[in-house]
Amino acid sequence: MLRTLDYVLRLWTLDPGLWTVTMKIEKFEDIEAWKKGRELAKDIYTVTGKGEFAKDYGLRDQIRRAAVSAISNIAEGFDANSDDEFVRFLRYALRSATEVQSHLYVALDQNYISPEAFTQLYDQAIEVKKLISGFIRYLRR
Q1: At 12, phi and psi to the nearest 5?
Q2: Which of residues 5 and 47 earns the better pLDDT score?
Q3: Which of 10, 38, 85, 126 has a CA between 20 and 30 Å from the CA of residue 91?
Q4: How far is it, in rounded angstroms, from Cα 47 to Cα 8?
Q5: Which CATH class is domain 31-140?
Q6: pLDDT band at residue 122 using 50, 70 and 90 as cut-offs
Q7: Virtual torsion, Cα 121, 126, 132, 135, nearest 10 deg
Q8: What are the residue ranges spanned by the domains of the chain?
Q9: Mean pLDDT computed over 126-132
């Protein structure tokens, strides 16, 4: 089944006017949350492949699985038969992004990552979560 969503983006300008742009989402790769989640997963793989982090197989594998789970649930939900089912998968994706954030604290506490790397990855996860949450709100309307 090919699913097409009309996603309305609202862009504020410097004046109080509101611009509305409609874009078609024809494949899961068009979803901004998926794109940003993919970047997060790539960066997680990079940081977990180095130094002591690479040797902590449990934490390394768990944070990688959580990052991949976030984008996988977005993709899987896209082919759902209803918006309600899609939202269910988006909520799983949201939880997986939160799991990444939690694992980042463990990595920081074990000195596997620098405070700067922690902040950068944590902020990426926040951005992914905001995009997922916004998409959930849109689908709930």
Answers
A1: -85, 140
A2: 47
A3: 10
A4: 35
A5: mainly alpha
A6: very high
A7: -130
A8: 31-140
A9: 98
Backbone angles phi, psi at 50, to 5 degrees: -120, 150
Contact present, 75 and 105 (Cβ < 8 Å):
no
Task: Count CA atoms within 13 Å of residue 39 on its CB side.
Answer: 14
**CA within 13 Å, CB half, 6:** 4
Given CA atoms 82, 41, 124, 119 in this order, what sign does their dihedral have?
positive
Q: Which residue has the tokens 């794109």?
A: 35
Q: CB neighbours of 1 closer than 8 A, spacing ≥ 6?
A: 79, 81
Alpha carbon 129 to chain centroid, angstroms: 6
pLDDT of residue 24: 82
Tell me if 125 sits within 8 A of 97, measured CB to CB: yes
Judged by DSSP in three states, 101 sits in helix
Instruction: Report CA-CA distances (Å) from 50 to 53, 54, 66, 140.
Output: 6, 5, 18, 41
User: pLDDT at residue 1 above 60?
Assistant: no
Q: Which residues, in sequence order, are bridge partners of residue 19? A: 11
Q: How is residue 128 written in tokens?
A: 């992914």
Whether 12 has a pLDDT exceeding 70, the answer reads no
